[in-house]
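Sequence in, structure out. Go.
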Amino acid sequence: MASPDVIQLVGTLGFPIVMVLILLWFFNTRIWPWFTNFMQSYMAVLEKNTSAMQQMTGALGAVGDQIKAQPNQQLATAVTTLIERMDAQHLGLSQQVAAAKSEIIMAIGGNAGKIDRVYREIKDE
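Output:
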């Protein structure tokens, strides 16, 4: 389309209408094909991921069924040992906190009640 044709078109229809037509042409020839290709590739990836997730879910379900069918003694022993170690560590930490509290109280002297109140607030959290 030559420039006299564009000038005549703008003169006949008006500048805003010509701009809308150019925008529609651009959208139809450039953006819409890109968008449809993008959506097709996105849907393909989404379908692939969905099927992979379904396979993993099925495999995890099978493993769960096996664990339910045969209780794993080693796993139970490991979990029990872990819980006992955590309890022992917690007890040791509590004893260290109590010792530090008594040292602080002895160092400060007269403000023992305030320190004890703050300690209880921290312990309750």
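Check: The chain has a mean pLDDT of 77. DSSP finds four helices and no strands in the chain.
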